[in-house]
Write a structure and sequence with these properties.
- The protein is of the alpha+beta class and 106 residues long.
- Among the domains are: 26 residues; 48 residues, no CATH class.
- The protein has a 4-stranded antiparallel sheet, covered by helices on one side.
- The longest helix has 17 residues.
Length: 106
């Protein structure tokens, strides 16, 4: 598999300076998590209301997640949930507003 330019830069850094220490790795991880929690998601205010059967796709940290809108909730990974917030929190491991996380105006 061909390395992307970012991965090449990381590998060159490691060859020249070695691995980051554990405290620095932990701090970088926390910074990335904080950034992910605070990133802005553009919501189209003119979006149509979603109806049962609609599939919502969201990519988060390089992985795609698919949610199906039901009459009284949402289906995610074979289970029913009442709110998008519950699903967003499950995906991220942190507290999120579900509508904001999925970019829907319902």
């Amino acid at each position: 598999m061909k390395e992307n330019s970012y991965q090449i830069k990381i590998n060159n850094w490691h060859k020249k300076y070695g691995q980051f220490s554990k405290p620095i790795q932990d701090k970088l991880k926390q910074l990335v998590e904080d950034y992910d929690k605070n990133q802005e998601i553009n919501i189209n205010k003119n979006a149509i209301k979603i109806t049962p059967g609609t599939r919502i796709i969201r990519e988060y940290k390089g992985k795609k997640y698919s949610i199906t809108v039901l009459v009284d909730g949402y289906e995610f990974e074979g289970k029913e949930y009442k709110t998008l917030t519950t699903i967003a929190n499950k995906i991220t491991g942190t507290k999120w507003n579900g509508k904001k996380f999925f970019g829907v105006n319902q």
